[in-house]
Amino acid sequence: MEALHEFLQSSAIGDLLPWPVQMEAAQKFDVSCGKVEDTALELGLLPSRYQRNRRAISVSQQLTLFRSRVAVIGCGGLGGYVIEELARLGVGTIVAIDPDVFEEHNLNRQILSTPATLGRPKSEAAAARVAEINPAVTLIPLQVAYSSENGEELLKGSNVIVDALDSIPTRLALAETCTELGIPMVHGAIGGWYGQVATQFPGDDTIKKLYSRWVAGKGVEQELGNPSFTPALVASMEVAEVCKIILGRGATLRHRKMVVNLLDMEFEEVKFERLLEAVTE
After folding, report:
1. What ranges make up the beta strands (E) of the chain?
2. In this structure, are strands 256-261 and 266-271 parallel, antiparallel, or unpaired?
3. Are 179 and 203 in contact (CB under 8 A)?
4. Is 217 left (phi over 0), alpha (psi -120 to 50) or beta?
5. What's the CA gap between 160 and 174, in Å, rounded?
């Protein structure tokens, strides 16, 4: 790959590598866009698409993101935005897990849904979207329902798991599998004008504590529905958590949750010791 190295270094503008050069390199050396991006970052060259990241995320950190794998469980309201932002952030491998197809009632809030995608598998639409916005990123679409039985197979090899579910039983099963596999899990839940985000690290049992009062049925989303802005905000907070976990930077929402009330524009941090007293069902 010495020839590829020389080509990228000679074609860069300063330390920036324009997208046309990346495409030319992929064709010239018969390698994937992902291989070109990985090589460029390893050489200290920053693909130009990330130049607005550089004051927040260094080239070496961008490489860490690109060599990471994140599994997103659910490709609907939350999951669609999570996948969009992970791909634009430059996370190299995204596993998108969802058994459903798009229906008309998804159009009000799910970024991957359009009239043209109605009836199409959500995970398949996620793959098409990522290929369109960042071809260097690999998205693995899995049109299956997550369960305790297939959880280990679906999640293995991932650095972080993102909860974009609307089912509390499935969320609890996901949290248990993450604990068993030793993988951090970023939790998000929404309903109407409201949402919450928390991060569970192996051994914390955060999700189990959050939903300790849950008895049966789905969450509050089924009663309150969701406008377009709630999933966008909560998903963005989840992606920020993912980024911090992968890079080992900043303070995550471990041992605490952030509760969002967009109707009154209030944000409340609930500490770990209060979780059992502030369960959102």
Report:
1. 16-17, 46-47, 69-73, 93-97, 138-142, 160-163, 185-191, 194-200, 256-261, 266-271
2. antiparallel
3. yes
4. left
5. 12
Strands (DSSP E) found in 211-275: 256-261, 266-271
pLDDT digits (tens, 9 = 90+) for 194-240: 999 999 999 999 999 898 877 565 556 667 789 999 999 999 999 99
Pairing outcome for strands 69-73 and 160-163? parallel
Residue given tokens 């008895």 in the structure block: 215
CA distance 75 to 63: 25
Q: What integer pLDDT is reported at residue 279 of this predicted model?
A: 44
Token reading at 82: 């999570």
Largest CA distance in the chain: 62
Residue segments in the chain with a per-residue pLDDT below the cut of 70 = 215-222, 273-281
pTM over 0.85: yes
Token pair in block for residue 207: 């999700």
pLDDT of residue 280: 42
Q: Where are the alpha helices (DSSP H) in 48-187?
A: 59-66, 77-89, 122-133, 151-155, 168-181
Residue found by looking up tokens 């994140």 in the block: 70
Going by their DSSP bridges, the two strands 160-163 and 93-97 should be labelled as unpaired
